[in-house]
User: What shape does this take?
Amino acid sequence: MQNDTYHLSFQGGTLILKNARIDPPAPFQWIKAQWRCEAYHYPLLQDWLRNNHIRDTVPRWVHPHASLLDERAPHDYQREALTAWEKHERRGSIVLPTGAGKTFVAIHAMFRADCSTLVVAPTIDLLHQWYARLVNAFQIEIGVYYGGEKTIQPFTVTTYHSASDLIAEHGNAFKLIIFDEVHHLPAPSWGEAALMAPAPFRLGLTATYPEEHEQTDGRWRVNELIGPIVYTERIDDLVGNQLAEYRTERLRIDLTEVERQRYEADFQIYSAFFRSRDLRRTHGARWLMELNRLSAFDPDARRAFLARRRITELLSAAEGKYRALERLLREYSAEQTIIFAENKKSAYRIARQYLVPIITAETKAAERKVALDRFRAGQYKVLVTCEVLNEGVDVPEAKIAIVMGGTSGAREYIQRLGRVLRKVENRKAILFEILARKTIEAQQSSRRGRK
Amino acid sequence: MLTGELVRPRLRQRGSTLTVEFVDTQSTHWQRTAAELIHLFAGQLHQPHSIWDTVLEQYEGERIDYVVIRGLAKVLEDAATFRPIDTAFPPVQMREHLLTYGPVFPTADLFNPQSRTDILSRLASELKVSVSDLEQAMFADRPSEYLLREVGLPWTAEGLLARYNMELARGVLYWASEMQVELHDNYKDFWRYLKLFKLMFEAAPVLKGGYQVHMDGPISPFVKSTTRYGRQFAAFLPALFLGKEWQMTAKVRRAPNEDALVYTLDQTSPLHSHFKQSGLFDSKLEEDFAQQFEEKFGEKRGQWLLRREDEVILMGDTVFIPDFSIIHKKDGRRALIEIIGFWHPDYLRRKVDKVRRAGLANLILLVYAGLNLTPDKLADVPSQVLYFPHKPVLKEVMAAVEAYAL
Assistant: This one.
């Protein structure tokens, strides 16, 4: 009977020896009446398992035999990186500067290893980007595992946040794990994923490998979990001068009379509270959190908080903004245009009203890919989104960007634009900012402009 | 279950202990709030979730106790069923088709000869649906568009408040790294739910009776106070309230760098489990056996006492809880009884495996003769085996008890 034999199995991120007849070696500990160790020791146990004729029920990984449809040949440095990693028993990190094609290297690594692979990305946006790249490269169904969607396939992408849940349940289904932006790994809860996986093959990708002192922050060192750095390339000019050339135009609209009255009334409440408390001085950048905290027991704070929320809602729904948006859409209807709405509600309103595709945190991987692909191909002229197309994400090029007011920070603002707008045939791209005159957002925008 | 942000504001720290502030289920203020929310929610039947969100926001108004209001609302929502409307085509497909026309405008012009209305009516007639169906279906797969189909439970104000308190008590455990329970009854359900929520345990008998159980998950011993099993602890918690005598202690860290605080609960907490208690007897055979015993030896008539599932045989990662213990009134000798009745072969195989591993000399197995469980299959089991054709013969059982009790 299977239960009686001496065997190694995988459970919740650990390896268990059942019916042990001899005491196992070091990483195993006798815990709760079982010999147990963290799953990442798995490759080191191979010889011992063989020599002692212990049945190994851990691996559930497969050979997908996927064909690679990307015809671009790797650059020399990409090929060297791959060879170095393979020579190192497919364990270790490759350090390449931003823009040097890390994803491309990873896809070739997956193709050549031909085994079930899990890709761990830092954010949901990057997860979607990986998904799209893998679908294009392999033309097979790709698994997606995070809060909104959970499917497992031989090639699956997840986030650091969801990785340990996935691995606790399905860790032994993957022989190769690719950690994108591997410098995130030392964080305590994120390293758990690498610790809980039996995968013998591991590939870390980053532009900035963590320094020694950054590694000791958590319990684990990246080298121990992934393997050493196997390849480093520092071509500073790889990135080149890709920053787009664009000009900014500010469209200032007036609130309607009714909007203005409501705005002033709420602004009164809000600013009176701030004059009396001055949270910005006492709490700096965390003033909004403090206001939120206070509003659970201080009625004045609660009223100020609500007034602020109503102001934000009013500004994002201001009629003048939608009229301005419509004028721009009519005027530039032949151009590739991306609209950044202030929030989800406003984004869906725009999508519905103008029948344009939308991408938000709710949009699932497959639909998101279709929308971005069609936008790139020019089949969709307009794309509306709120806050998802962030830092480091492959956003298709656009000629026109329309930012609907908004209160997002300056840094995010610049990053969004740099990535989206490309000069096409000497015609500069244009960024339109639609702002309500004489409101808090007009002030914020002029602060940005001065920087 | 509540979200973390609905629990955090209710946490209270005193020294190194952590408590959660319950609402008074008898307070007129909270009873009125609960009743109003139940009423408002019931009125939302067949409405989309987004409308309910607006209604709730309006109800909150400027009240500063909005954390409780949202918590109560969350309890209502969790018990209810929200489902998308049925559409002729999946909304994703519909969008991929519909949105190729954009941008469209309310009025046609030189460059956009068709207005939004033109396009929608054309598509609607192509698909043989109405324009309003089309509008409704466009984003019907958004959770905020799901309709409230069933309220779920027949709530009372007090019932809702009580359940909210239970959810608060559970929520504290989201940030727990381990849990320690001492229990003196309720063994069967305790281990049943432990298994259901995939928790790991280490148990030891307590001198004065009962068991001390330490609970965590597979990776816990290897990582410093992980909170990855917090939601499982929280899910499990109501199982404790099925017992009459127990204490729970958990180590909770509200932030990764904070010191662990101690969170305790016991049977005196004013909470009630909504988990189902398993029946007193698993089968008619057990019930008949207990009844027959009472008739012949109950009260003061005999030397032996019959107890239901009151001993837990600890077997590493699992437990074996025999159906009955029979205890001698004077010298305290014990025999254990397990009735093996009309069972499914798989279950039977696992049970025999367990009994074999338990290796108990004072266990008496009462085996239904109609089962294909011949003596040779039980040859390596050190326990006593009695076969019965219809029901166990009490006289034979008691003879075995006298002979093998330890």
